[in-house]
Write a structure and sequence with these properties.
By secondary structure, the protein is an alpha/beta fold. It contains three helices and five strands. The model has no long low-confidence stretch (mean pLDDT 86). Keywords: Ribonucleoprotein, Ribosomal protein.
Length: 91
């Protein structure tokens, strides 16, 4: 009976507008910038670790992720983000 409860809960959450689907991977920097410039883009989170830098842009339906191994390219991308977009750096 918990499955029916979960289904009901998901349906209600979706109707209230707080339901987000699975993340989407973006392969190209250009595509990420186009996504970040969309009207429904809310914020960008930048997560750095020793191997790569992950850029995550939250749009209305999906969380889009771009992974960059080159630290210099990551810094250039950070500078290229739209000025009105909220940017948060994570460790």
């Amino acid at each position: 009976n918990s499955i029916c409860g979960l289904s009901f809960c998901l349906r209600i959450t979706y109707l209230l507008g707080s339901f987000h689907l699975q993340p989407r991977q973006i392969e190209e920097i250009k595509d990420f910038l186009l996504t970040a410039r969309r009207k429904d883009a809310k914020s960008v989170k930048i997560k750095k670790n020793k191997d790569n830098v992950k850029f995550k842009v939250r749009c209305s339906k999906f969380l889009y992720t771009l992974v960059i191994a080159d630290k210099e390219k990551a810094e250039k991308l950070k500078q290229s983000l739209p000025p009105g977009l909220a940017v948060k750096e994570l460790k």
